Amino acid sequence: MQVKLEHVTHTYQPGSPFQATAIRNVSMTIEPGEFLSLIGHTGSGKSTLAQHINGLLKPTEGKVLLDGQDIHEKGYPIKEVRRKIGLVFQYPEHQLFEETVAKDIAFGPKNLGLGEAEIADRVQEALERVGLTEAGIAEKSPFELSGGQMRRVALAGVLAMRPEILVLDEPAAGLDPQSREEMLQLIADLHKRGCTVVMISHSMDNVARFSTRAVVMEKGTIVQSGTPEEIFRHAEALEKMGLDVPSVCRLGIRLREMGVPCPEDIFREEQAEQALLALWKGGRAHGVQ
């Protein structure tokens, strides 16, 4: 499933004293099977852009196409778009409301009009996909769970709709280190199983680890788009925009400043390990602290 934005602009409260344009003339394509990261400052338009991908927001100007069809044309089944493209807001656990985990996960499938057996199957499948397989957890109140488990329940509620594209706004925000890593590995596993992923993230290390492509936004426009290699090869340009870069990039910059011939296209830990090992074996790391 391909999603294409054509010259999309979105203005909040147009014509009022509070009018504000969040994104301007944005064009981009999300291809099936991608792991696309959206990066940029707070207020750069990332969340507004994400909400256009599944039709939650309608463009002030421009079009959003799903497999070539404008999702906002009269008669287009917009509910089907939101079933196929799941959107997970930041801190989604704040939207849990049912008395049990199972009922919360079942909410979306129930609204699809599915039968009880199909709903039960989807609830169980979603619990397994997010790693909540503990006996009896489906009948617990979600509010008895840890923060990380609550977020998994919220994600399971989206997965129970069996989306083909998953859009996540800072999915690891506010979690402890272990829960953060578990959530990111879960998302990576969903991607490996064939789900297209769009992730908003402030962590450049996570962008470097998981993305197949990254889009950099600034003041409501796309200023860079490419593979992590292409984006982080110009770490200095990102820093000039006030954005962070992967810790490995910072290490590479420092080594090059010290005269160590460290390649500029290193941004993952395993790449740094291989490069430094090669330098050490070649005897070129002498004197580097």
Keywords:
6-stranded mixed sheet; 10 strands; 11 helices; alpha/beta; 289 residues
Describe the structure.
This protein has 289 residues and is of the alpha/beta class. It is built from 11 helices and 10 strands. It has helices at 46-53, 78-84, 101-111, 116-129, 147-159, 177-192, 204-210, 228-232, 235-240, 247-257, 269-281, and strands at residues 3-12, 20-30, 35-40, 61-66, 69-70, 85-88, 165-169, 196-200, 213-218, 221-226. It has a 6-stranded mixed beta sheet, with helices on both faces. A 4-stranded antiparallel beta sheet has the order 2-1-4-5, covered by helices on one side. Helix 3 packs parallel to helix 5 (147-159). The longest helix has 16 residues, at 177-192. It is globular, with a radius of gyration of 21 Å. The termini are far apart. The model has no long low-confidence stretch (mean pLDDT 90).
Mean pLDDT: 90
Radius of gyration: 21 Å
The number of distinct β-strands equals: 10
What's the helical proportion of residues? 25-40%
Tell me the β content: 15-25%
Please provide the ordered H/E string of secondary-structure elements.
EEEHEEHEHHHEHEHEEHHHH
- Largest sheet features: 6 strands, mixed
Class per helix and strand makeup: alpha/beta
Strand order of the largest sheet: 6-7-8-3-9-10
Shape: globular
Oligomer: single chain
- The helix count comes to 11
- Which residues form runs of ≥5 with pLDDT under 50? none
Q: Gist?
A:
The protein has 289 residues and is an alpha/beta fold. It has helices at 46-53, 78-84, 101-111, 116-129, 147-159, 177-192, 204-210, 228-232, 235-240, 247-257, 269-281; strands at residues 3-12, 20-30, 35-40, 61-66, 69-70, 85-88, 165-169, 196-200, 213-218, 221-226.
